[in-house]
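Here's what a typical entry looks like (S8 family peptidase):
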Amino acid sequence: MSDVHLIPYQTVQILDTSSVIPEGVQMIDAPGLWDSSQKGAGNVVAILDTGCDVTHPDLKDRIIEGRNFTTDFNQDIYQYTDNNGHGTHVAGTIAATQSNSGVTGVAPESDLLIAKVLTGSGQGKMEWIVDAIEYATNWRGPQGERVEVISMSLGGPTDVPELKEAIIHAVQKGISIVCAAGNSGDGRDDTNEYAYPGAYNEVIQVGAINFKRELASFTNTNDEIDLVAPGVEILSTYTEGRYAKLSGTSMATPHISGAIALLKNVTTEQFERKLTECEIYAQLIRRTVPLGNSKKAEGNGLLHLTLVQKLEGLLTPFTKTWNPAMKEEKTHQNK
C-alpha cells in the first residue's frame, strides 16, 4: 500500500496559556447546543492522527483509550502520545474539557479514542490507517461504549481499495467518518484537487474558511466536498501542555467531528431512537448555511449548529393552527 501523511498545515502561533472558548467553536455555535446535547457526553470520537498529549490538562480526562500503530516508541502499542503536535490540536477542537482555564472543545464531555497512525515527522503507511479504522470500528469500551465518529485530518494522493473497504465497513456499522479535504487548493473552484480518504463519497469531506467567512486560499475544491468549517488560525491544545494556532483543513475537520457528537445526543432525544449514519448526515447538512461559493468549493455551506432552532422560532407564527372562522368574525367586527 502507498504512504500517507499529514496534510500540510501552517503553525501560526504557540502559546503557554489560554482561557477562552475558541472562535471556531463559537462560529459554528456549538455553545448554543450544549444544554440540549449534554455537551456530547456518552459519545466516543476516534482520532487517527499523530497521537495525543495524554497529560494535557484540557484532554487527560477525555481520553478513554488508545493505540500506537506506527514505528515510533519502538512500536510499543501502548505509547500513543503525540510527538508532533497535530493530533493534540485536533483533539482539543473536538473535546477539550470546559473549565476556568485552557480552551473548550466543540463537544467538551465526549470521549476520545486515540489511534496514533502517523509518526512524529507526520508520515505513515496506508496499512496503519486501515488497521486503525478496523480497530476503531470493533472497539468496545468498559461500559460497552462504541465509536460514533472517526476523525481523520490526513491524506494521500492514491485511491487505495483496502482503505475504501475499511471505511465502507465502518459506515455500515453506523460510524460517521469525517475527513479533511486537503490543502493543495489553487484558489480556483473550477479545478479539482483530491486527497484520500477525503475524496471518497462515503466520508464527510470538510473544507476550510476563515473568520470572515471567506474560503481559505489553501482548501481543496472538488465534487465531493460536503461542507466547510473554520480552518484558519484555529486555537486549540498543543504538546507539553501548551496551546497553538494552526491553519488547514485539518483544523476544520474536528469542528465537524465534535458537532456530530452533539447531534447524536440531540437527535436521539428528539426522535426517541438512535439515528442511522445517513440520518445523522442529513441532520448535519440541514444545519448548514450557503456562503455564496460554488458547491465544489463549499459543498452545502458553513455549519451552524443552532440554525434549525432559529428557523423554527422564525416560523412559529406560520405554524400555529389556522382558524378561518376566527378571521371571519374579526372581519365582521371591523365592519
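The first helix runs from residue 23 to 27.

More examples are in the samples folder.
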